[in-house]
Amino acid sequence: MSSAKPAPVLEALTSALNVPIQKREDSFYEPRQQGYYSPSPEGTWQLAQTNQTHAPNHSLPALNRRNIRLISWNIDVLTPFHEERMSAALTYLDELVFSTPPDVAIVVFLQEMGTSDMQQIRESVWIKKRFYLTDVDETSWLSPYYGTTMLVDRRLQINSVFRVPWYSKFDRDGLFVDICISESAKANANPRFIRLCNTHLESLVADPPVRPIQIAVASQYLHQSSVSCGVVAGDLNAIQPFDRTLHTENKLNDAYLMCGGSEDSEDGYTWGQQVPEALRNRFGCSRMDKILYMGSIQPTSFERIGIDVKVAEEHRQKMREAGQLEWVTDHYGVMADFVLLEGGELGQIGQSAML
What we know:
Elements: H1 7-17, E1 32-34, E2 37-39, E3 45-47, E4 67-74, H2 82-99, E5 105-113, H3 115-123, H4 125-130, E6 131-133, E7 147-153, E8 158-165, E9 173-183, E10 192-200, H5 211-222, E11 227-235, H6 246-249, E12 253-254, H7 255-258, H8 277-283, E13 289-295, E14 297-305, H9 313-321, E15 333-340, E16 344-346
Parallel strand pairs: 4-5, 10-11
Antiparallel strand pairs: 1-8, 2-3, 4-15, 5-7, 6-7, 8-9, 9-10, 9-16, 11-13, 12-13, 14-15
């Protein structure tokens, strides 16, 4: 496994820091449709067809069509020992997925993906058995750094996948997936969706602020007429006072707060606990990672994940010798269970064909 520091990522970040943000032509910020991927019987990833029907398979039970679990985790792209850390992260996520009630659909949001991360995801047997991938490489990313991807339960019916570039100096965007739902309580023939957005909002402090623009655009897409309910989640880089109110200003709810959490609470922080002491002393701890939602959906539980997850024992000594911490990433992840309201049910054309 490689342990070299990802110099191109650092160079790209430094370059972006040293130039002002540039507004591009309006067409640049239009939605960009993309495909998604399903494993073939031979185990290779191939483009899936929207709304495709799979032959029934009973390796997983039918869905509880009113419940869905969302997991979000940022795996630090700037720290060396990429493969070792991502391997441990995937092992942990496998255990988390396995511990989930088998009739509950799962969607996993990942941020700060690199090319080696995508290779490890493609090769993971447990992912092939249960999930679609929105990405198998960096093709749809605005740059090969700071990529995002989603793992989507293959019992769900995907209507579309698209990306919306944000106004950003770091090439950030929103990755959207529309999942079909039915609303038995409404006599409405028009298709309706739960729209999920995985994002990594602008890093650091900007003047004027950029994150309010980014979350406002995400909210606009969640509030479109075809969307029954929506979720935007990920590393929202909430490090300034204005970040605390971005959800209310954009007609969104904060799952952590709605489940009883409070600001400035140790049990809410997702960054700062797993960084070098000098960084923690300088920046403190913060609740960077959030799950925001709107519409006919309600969180029933919220928790942090990835706490004190470290690389495999056989890699720790060489990481210590290189002056690196043993944790998989500097972020805790977040996880929320949701229930659909107003008679909404997750669309399920047929059981996914599991390998």
